[in-house]
């Protein structure tokens, strides 16, 4: 028996059952991580999600997703759809991103290209001092994200 703060650091391969009380209060990623703590050994495992009705629409959706799949990628996609992306550069961990133009879901391919390009720029010009780096710095300033420049090297 443990709290979530203690449990996440515990690795007990023979653990085969997990009971999560008040599961409706946890997020999808946290529930998935907790569920992954059982079934690490050879024994079959079970994770029981106990909740207290009535459930909010959001809580019901989270628990349904967990019941339907163990696929971490699908869970992450659902979590993104439910909570929003938050700031890509900044501190907000959920909510709608502050894009003036763009849609993360509809333009996922374009976003992957942009991310790859940004990583290449930072690898080749970590100080953003080249003409291209200065253009990126100006773009961040225009989008009021220039305060994030100091965080770029963090990853």
Write up what this structure looks like.
It is a single chain. By secondary structure, this protein is mainly α. It folds into two domains: 7-83, 3-Layer(aba) Sandwich (Rossmann fold); 102-155, no CATH class. It contains six helices and two strands, in the order H-E-H-E-H-H-H-H. The protein has helices spanning 4-7, 28-35, 57-68, 72-83, 108-124, 131-142; strands at 17-20, 46-49. The chain has a two-stranded parallel ribbon. Strand 1 (17-20), helix 2 (28-35) and strand 2 (46-49) form a beta-alpha-beta unit. Helix 3 runs antiparallel to helix 4 (72-83). The mean pLDDT is 80.
Salient structural properties:
mainly alpha; 6 helices; 155 residues; two-stranded parallel sheet; 5% strand; Rossmann fold
């Amino acid at each position: 028996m443990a709290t979530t703060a203690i449990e996440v650091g515990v690795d007990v391969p023979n653990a085969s059952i997990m009971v999560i009380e008040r599961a409706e209060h946890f997020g999808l990623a946290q529930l998935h991580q907790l569920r992954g703590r059982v079934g690490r050994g050879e024994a079959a495992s079970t994770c029981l999600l106990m909740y207290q009705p009535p459930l909010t629409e959001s809580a019901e959706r989270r628990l349904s997703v967990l019941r339907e799949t163990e696929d971490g990628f699908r869970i992450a996609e659902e979590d993104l759809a439910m909570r929003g992306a938050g700031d890509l550069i900044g501190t907000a961990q959920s909510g709608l991103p502050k894009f003036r133009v763009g849609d993360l879901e509809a333009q996922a391919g374009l976003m992957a290209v942009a991310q790859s390009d940004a990583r290449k720029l930072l690898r080749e010009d970590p100080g953003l001092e080249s003409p291209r780096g200065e253009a990126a710095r100006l773009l961040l300033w225009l989008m009021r994200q220039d305060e994030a420049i100091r965080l770029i090297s963090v990853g």
